[in-house]
Each structure stands twice: as structure tokens, then as C-alpha cells.
Automatic annotation (TrEMBL):
Keywords: ATP-binding, Cell membrane, Membrane, Nucleotide-binding, Translocase, Transmembrane, Transmembrane helix, Transport
Coiled-coil segments: none
Lipid bilayer topology: Multi-pass membrane protein
Superkingdom as given in the UniProt entry: Bacteria
InterPro entries found in the cross-reference section: AAA+_ATPase, ABC/ECF_trnsptr_transmembrane, ABC_transporter-like_ATP-bd, ABC_transporter-like_CS, ABC_transpr_CbiO/EcfA_su, ECF_ABC_transporter_ATP-bd, P-loop_NTPase
PANTHER family, per database record: ENERGY-COUPLING FACTOR TRANSPORTER ATP-BINDING PROTEIN ECFA1, HEAVY METAL TRANSPORTER
Transmembrane segments: 604-637, 644-665, 685-705, 823-843
Protein name (database record): Cobalt ABC transporter
Length: 844
């Protein structure tokens, strides 16, 4: 049998040979083998995985993938593009961040993208979509937008996209780093099934229990393979000593197995015997603090949430509340269900509290609300006696209005008091050097340069990264970026620190640094709120564990020092919680209305006609006809008019202002008002109204097109319309794909810009509380990190396209065949009649 991968004397450098990410690496992976790559951050695991996946070429050595001689540095051979393309047709790759691996906004279209590039028959593509979505348990989300899903669901869609290509080898780079235990167990179950059916698995991981499933465990340090553990059926479930794992960067686990965790999650809501206490306290060990102890400080209860709290025995803490949340509800714009519903809890000053829960349960959303980066729909939040959000009631009514938010002075006080470490550290860095980035917060506190330098030095030293002070934060590894982001917040010396998954993707040594930091801050009396998926981590650093959403870690076991109370969220909505992402191109239901059923070519042509003819509207009668036409299309598309207007409200406001300017420049007609030398005429008002409204029609038509047409349909339709130009040498297929991907990633880049702005605001930046000039300067400063983010997304997208076997000029099968139907002919006829009507009304 042909070996899956043979790597000989491999060397790889990111800086032209000044240093080596991989140095003289030799590795053979046998067909059907399950191999785990482990090691500290920066040891070369991801680089090696990328080479095995055929997504990068080394500087030197010899690589054979699935029998294809893809790279040989002997002589002048080097990389063999044809062999790389042939090998990748049978290799699947799943990245750590699935968001950059999703190429469209409908799950089935995304899964179909790889088979389309392979030229798979349409009927076979349909069968593979069914099969792969079933394997990852995502059939119910076939027509949903994966860019709006939780991280766990996105990762499963990304895996489904690879499974649909039927790879003989699958490469995964820390696919479970940001997943909760249940989602992690689902991913591992899929890998076990694939391995059982003969698929070769190469898995990069820091998790002990994941590595123990492998046939071989490859340990890497500083770009070298330092140890290989051969596993077999007799010892695969054995326990490796902690000291051995800590030397190689893998995280030891004292938690239950993934299978046990998943079983417990599935049965979490089954009836069980417990005390009659309303807080649902489960079985306690002998070390647990009593429920009525003042240290326990249980969070308050609410009608929709039963707070699940775990108390850990530590020194006596102050009973002064640091964070008080009362009946909090938050719903993302465009969502049909709240991310957080009627949540109440209290965190006391000096406490270290861990927030746990499933992906999509609202943990990161809660962190952002506490830091005043989003505004709740209902409820109140008080942080260090600062009214972050104050619930209000209408007079003589129990109905609540949107909570009142902070004024500028209160917001400045909050930024000096609360520090926020975001989930994605690369979005929190924006200065030219590490030292400047860490100094950003202290400078906003108006400290002198001597004090700023001292704070920067102390923060970097505390995290053992002082050697990075003069480096660009954008050139660092993910683990180093995370440490720098934390240092930038610590330098502000907040009395309350909120940390969202601070140790995700970090090795054992870096994780220990963060835990040491949290314990040091705890001793100094700092209140720490840490969002985490690791029960081990929560046990190691927290005084109390609060679980929201589903009940993770709710069963007490022998030796635990915890007391558990539950907080299930009955209305959890699966949504990306770390950023408030504007609603992207979403088709509300699959082929559920006339507009979505239209052939994309007919739709694009007719909508362009409608948009261009709108500029010819010059009379109220024509405007009325245009409004009737647009209203009919909205009704036929079953779109929510208010939501549609909300999606384009900024453009509408701009055109209204531009239209209003016509009032001051039109001199014809009867003068109604004389403002000094400027006459306001009836013609000026009429033209201003017509100007604003006809542009509004154009913008609304564009929004309808985007909300009823997927990027895949736009790509296919645009490519088909441009196909005659192919004879002139134009790369029409590539132009169409670029347009589609641009539409797909514009919301992502917008979300990144917002995240960077939020990071500046969280450290007291003038983008939020400064003067108009200062805010404009701060917004200008977003350009550098936005540019870095765009390059990062472009690089990841390029890898995703390679992994899905997309190539310029290839013959692609279309999953959605283009056929002109009677409904398309009817819509074109209606559009033609509408144009004739505009002409007739213009002549009257």
C-alpha cells in the first residue's frame, strides 16, 4: 500500500533562512494511520501540517503525498505544480478558524463547493451533501447561513465540506480549540468514524485526550521532531505522566472523557434526585462550602435562568458587589431569538469567577455587555457602581424600554476600571510595535512617559514576553499575540478584568503563565471574570463557576470541591457571540418564494434594468409606479420591510441629506421661503424629494437582490453572463468568483473593523469618547490593523480555495443548474411592462 506522506530532510523558513520553522524533519505517515502532532506554541506543528496537506512548499527536502512526488529540492526540480494539484484532490484540510474556510452563505452550497471543483456529477454532489451533513449532524441546517452559526457548527460545516470531497487523507489544525466539550466530542466522534473506515488522519492538538486516540503521537520542539510515541490497542487509552506531556506542550486533562461528557450533556435535563432548594444544588463533597455560607454569594435567580454556580474554597472575599446583572436580555439585530434571555447574576469584588457554557450560549455576548461594547434590549448592568445599562419603565406601565446607556464621563470611568481581553487577540492589536501597543491604554489614562514605560515593562515582564517589545505584533505567532493582548490590558491596571477564552490554543507553559497572572491579580484584590470551555482551567483559577445555557460540568464527583447550581437558557440562539456582525447576504428560506426561485441571470439583468431606470424618474407619478413595483417585489420575496430598511439605513440617510441640498440650489418655480439671498422654491423641494426617493429605490432594490441571492448563485449567474467574453481572453469564471468572495467577506471585514474599534474603546481610546477630531484620527488609525486583517483573511482564503481544489480555468460542475423557467419569463415581462409604464408616464 502506498504511504500517505513521506517527508525527507524538510527545511522551511518564514524569513528567508534567518531562522527555521522546520529543520531537517523526516516523517512517514502510513495509509490509514491516525497521527497526532503535538508540541509547544511555535514548535512548527501547523507548518508541518500545511506541508502534509500540500498547501505550502518547503525550502528544501523531498515530499511525496499519496504517491505524487510534489517537491524535490535536488537539482532544479523544486515544486511540481501538477503533482501538487493531483495530490490535493484526495487531501482534505480543516483549519483552526473555520470562518475563513467558508466560501458562501448557504450550508449546502458550501459543502458542494469542493465536489464542484472536482467536476463531480450533479446527482453525486447531491448524494455527498446529504451524506456529509448527516455525518456531522447538520442536516437540519442545510439551508442556513454558516457565517451566522456558532463556532462549533461552523467547524462541522467545514468538516462536511471536506468529507464531501471523499479525501483519503484529512489534515486538521487544532479544530477543537474554540469548542465546548460537547462540540469537541462531536468532532472527535467524526474523526474516529473516518479513521475506522480507512481515512488517514493527521491532527494537530494540545489536548491530551485527543492525542491518546492516535496510532502515533509526534512531539515537536523548535521545528524538530523530538519524540514519537507509537500507540496500539493495548495502551491507546493509557495515561501518560504529566511531566512527559508538559515537556512537549500538550495539555494534560483531569476531566472526564469526551464520550462521558457528551453522554452527561445529553442527559443533563433528565429528572434526577436533588434537594428541594430552588438553586438545584447537586451532590457536594466534604470540602464544599455550605450553601448558606456568606462566601458562597450565590448569583440571583430569574424566571428564565437558573444560575449554575460552583463555589471553590478560597480566602474570604469582600461581599461588596463588583458586577450586578438584573433581568438581562440581548438579541442580535436580524436574529429571531435572544442570545441572552432574562439573566441575573452577581459577582463580588475580589472574586475570580469562571463563566462556562456551550458554544452559542451567550458567554462572549455577556462579556461584551458588561464592558459596554453592546447595548442590551432589556435589563440593567452595574459595574463598580457604574450604571452600564439602566432598565427603564414607561409611566403607569410595566413594559420596559431599551436601557439607558452611559454618558461620556461614565464611559471614561468605566474604561479606567474594567479591562477586556477579547477572544481573538489578533483583532486587539493595532500599534507598530509590541511596546507601543501595550502603552496604548496607559497613554489614554494621561500618565507621564516615565509611568507609562514602567507599566509597559511590568506587564511584559509579568507575562515573560519582554523580549518581544520591539517586534511588530502582526509578525507574532497566535500564542504570542494572545500574551501581548493580555499585557496591553494589564498595563491599564484595571480593578475588574474580563477575559474571553484567554488560553485557547495555548500550550501548557503559556497557559500556566496566564493562570499565574490570574492568581497574582486575585491576591491583589482584582475582580476577574474569565470565559472558558475548560473545567480544569475553571477549577485551577476560579472561586466560583457560573454556567449559562446548557449545564456543563454540573455533576459533582468524588474529590471535587464544588457546589453546582444550573442556569439553562431556554432560548439560546446559535450565533457568533464575540462580535456583533451585521446581517449578511441571507436567503430567508430555501426557494420559498418567487424572487428566490428566479434564475440568477434573469434576476441580475432585470434588477439592473430596474435600478438604472430609477434614475430616469422625474415625476411623482413615475415615483409612485416605482414604489409600487418595489413593494410588489418585497411582498413576492416575503421580506420584512423594516429589516430591509434597517440594513440600508446609513445609505438612505446619506441620500436624504444629499437630496435636501437641492433645496438650496434650485432657483426655478415659485418661491415659498426666502432665507437671506437663498430662495426656497416649490421646484427645489420637489426635486429634493424625487432625488432622495429615487436613490432610495435603487438602494432598496440592491438590498433585495443581495438578500434573495446567494453568493454561489451570483457567481454562477455573473459567470454565465460574462461567458461570451471568454473568447476575448477574459477570465470570466475567476472574475465572478472574486465578486462572490468579496460579497462573502465584506461583512467579515466590517466585523473586524468593529472589533478593532472596540479594542481601542476598551482601553480608553478616543474613538469612543474623544472630540470629533480625535475620533476621526482614531478611525484613521484603524487602517493599519484593517490592512493586516485583510491580508490575513486573503491568505486564509487562498489556502481554503487550494484545499477545496479550486483552480483557474478548471471545468466546474454546477450544483445549481441554470435553467430559464416560466417564472423568469414572467418576471422579465413584468419588468418590461414597468419600463414602458415609466416612459408613458414621463410623456404625459
Amino acid at each position: 500500500m502506498i504511504d500517505a506522506a513521506i517527508l525527507t530532510d524538510i527545511r522551511f523558513s518564514y524569513d528567508g533562512g534567518a531562522s527555521w520553522a522546520l529543520n531537517e524533519v523526516n516523517l512517514t505517515i502510513h495509509a490509514g494511520e491516525y497521527v497526532c502532532l503535538t508540541g509547544p506554541n511555535g514548535s512548527g506543528k501547523s507548518t508541518l501540517a500545511r506541508l502534509i496537506a500540500g498547501l505550502s512548499a518547503p525550502d528544501a527536502g523531498h515530499i511525496t503525498l499519496l504517491g505524487h512526488d510534489v517537491f524535490n529540492s535536488d537539482g532544479d526540480a523544486g515544486a511540481n505544480p501538477a503533482e501538487y494539484r493531483a495530490a490535493r484532490r484526495n487531501i482534505g484540510a480543516v483549519f483552526q478558524n473555520p470562518e475563513d474556510q467558508l466560501v458562501t452563505t448557504i450550508s449546502e452550497d458550501d459543502v458542494a463547493f469542493g465536489p464542484e471543483n472536482l467536476g463531480t456529477d450533479r446527482s453525486e454532489i447531491g448524494r455527498r451533501i446529504d451524506e456529509s451533513l448527516t455525518q456531522v449532524d447538520m442536516t437540519a441546517h442545510r439551508y442556513d447561513d454558516p457565517t451566522r452559526m456558532s463556532g462549533g457548527q461552523q467547524q462541522r460545516i467545514a468538516i462536511a465540506g471536506m468529507l464531501a470531497m471523499h479525501p483519503s487523507m484529512l489534515i486538521l489544525d487544532e479544530p477543537t480549540a474554540m469548542l465546548d466539550p460537547v462540540a469537541r466530542a462531536e468532532v472527535m466522534r467524526i474523526l474516529d468514524e473516518l479513521h475506522a473506515h480507512g481515512t488517514t488522519i493527521v491532527h494537530v492538538t494540545h489536548h491530551h485526550d485527543e492525542a491518546m486516540r492516535a496510532d502515533r503521537i509526534i512531539h515537536m520542539v523548535n521545528g524538530n521532531i523530538v519524540n514519537v510515541d507509537n500507540r496500539n490497542d493495548d495502551n491507546r487509552n493509557g495515561i501518560v505522566p504529566f511531566t512527559r506531556w508538559s515537556e512537549t506542550g500538550i495539555m494534560p486533562s483531569r476531566e472526564k472523557s469526551l464520550e462521558d461528557e457528551m453522554y452527561r450533556q445529553e442527559h443533563a435535563h433528565e429528572p434526577h434526585n436533588h434537594d428541594s432548594d430552588e438553586s438545584h444544588i447537586l451532590e457536594l463533597s466534604e470540602h464544599t462550602i455550605a450553601a448558606d455560607s456568606p462566601i458562597a454569594a450565590q448569583p440571583t435567580q430569574s424566571a428564565h435562568h437558573h444560575v449554575h454556580s460552583t463555589q471553590i474554597q478560597h480566602t474570604q472575599q469582600s461581599l461588596q458587589p463588583a458586577i450586578v446583572i438584573d433581568h438581562l436580555t440581548y438579541q442580535y439585530p436580524g436574529s429571531d431569538a435572544p442570545a441572552i434571555c432574562d439573566l441575573s447574576l452577581t459577582v463580588n469584588a475580589g472574586e475570580t469567577v469562571a463563566i462556562m457554557g456551550a458554544n452559542g450560549a451567550g458567554k462572549s455576548t455577556l462579556a461584551r455587555l458588561i464592558c459596554a461594547l453592546d447595548q442590551p434590549n432589556e435589563g440593567s448592568i452595574t459595574v463598580a457602581n457604574i450604571p452600564v445599562a439602566t432598565d427603564q419603565h414607561t409611566h403607569n406601565s410595566q413594559h420596559r424600554r431599551s436601557p439607558r446607556m452611559l454618558n461620556r464621563k461614565q464611559r471614561e470611568t468605566l474604561r479606567r476600571t474594567v479591562g477586556f481581553v477579547m477572544q481573538h487577540p489578533e483583532r486587539q492589536l493595532f500599534a507598530d510595535t509590541v511596546a507601543d501597543d501595550v502603552a496604548y491604554g496607559p497613554r489614554n489614562q494621561r500618565l507621564n512617559e516615565t509611568e507609562i514605560s514602567a507599566r509597559v515593562h511590568d506587564a511584559l515582564q509579568l507575562l515573560h514576553i519582554e523580549h518581544l517589545a520591539d517586534r511588530s505584533p502582526f509578525s507574532l505567532s497566535g500564542g504570542q499575540q494572545r500574551l501581548v493582548a493580555i499585557a496591553g490590558v494589564i498595563a491599564c491596571r484595571p480593578s475588574i478584568l474580563v477575559m474571553d477564552e484567554p488560553t485557547a490554543s495555548l500550550d501548557e507553559t503559556a497557559t500556566a503563565r496566564i493562570h499565574e497572572l490570574i492568581q497574582t491579580l486575585h491576591k491583589q484584590g482584582v475582580t476577574v471574570l474569565i470565559v472558558t470551555h475548560s473545567l480544569d482551567e475553571a477549577h485551577a483559577v476560579a472561586d466560583r463557576i457560573i454556567t449559562i445555557g446548557t449545564a456543563i460540568g454540573t455533576q459533582a464527583t468524588a474529590g471535587n470541591r464544588h457546589k453546582h447550581t444550573a442556569v439553562p437558557n431556554a432560548t439560546v440562539h446559535e450565533m457568533k457571540a464575540e462580535t456583533n456582525i451585521p446581517e449578511a447576504n441571507t436567503v430567508h428560506s430555501h426557494r420559498s418564494n418567487i424572487v428566490t426561485q428566479l434564475d440568477p441571470r434573469a434576476k441580475m439583468v432585470t434588477f439592473l434594468v430596474l435600478m438604472f431606470t430609477a434614475f430616469a424618474i422625474n415625476t411623482p407619478a413615475q415615483l409612485a409606479l416605482g414604489a409600487i413595483m418595489v413593494g410588489a417585489i418585497i411582498a413576492a420575496g416575503r421580506l420584512n420591510p423594516l429589516r430591509l430598511l434597517a440594513s440600508v439605513h446609513m445609505f438612505l440617510a446619506m441620500f436624504i441629506v444629499m437630496g435636501a441640498l437641492n433645496i438650496f440650489f434650485v432657483r426655478t418655480g415659485n418661491t415659498l421661503i426666502q432665507l437671506g439671498p437663498i430662495p426656497i422654491t416649490d421646484d427645489g423641494i420637489t426635486i429634493a424629494i424625487l432625488y432622495a426617493l429615487r436613490f432610495a429605490l435603487v438602494i432598496i432594490l440592491g438590498a433585495i437582490l443581495m438578500q434573495t441571492t446567494t453568493p454561489t448563485e451570483l457567481t454562477d449567474g455573473f459567470g454565465s453572463l460574462l461567458s461570451p467574453l471568454r473568447h476575448l481572453g477574459m477570465h470570466t469564471q475567476e472574475i465572478a468568483l472574486v465578486m462572490s468572495l468579496a460579497l462573502r467577506f465584506l461583512p467579515t471585514l466590517g466585523a473586524e473593523a468593529k472589533a478593532i474599534a472596540d479594542a481601542q474603546a476598551a482601553r480608553g481610546g478616543s474613538i469612543e469618547t474623544g472630540s470629533l477630531t480625535a475620533r476621526l484620527q482614531a478611525m484613521t488609525a484603524l487602517c493599519v490593523p484593517m490592512f493586516a486583517g485583510a491580508i490575513r483573511h486573503a491568505d486564509n482564503l487562498s489556502l481554503a480555495l487550494d484545499a477545496r481544489c479550486y483552480e483557474e480555468g478548471i471545468h466546474r460542475t454546477r450544483w445549481h443548474a441554470l435553467h430559464v423557467k416560466p417564472v423568469d419569463i414572467m418576471f422579465c415581462a413584468i419588468t418590461g411592462t414597468y419600463v414602458v409604464g415609466l416612459v408613458v408616464l414621463g410623456l404625459l
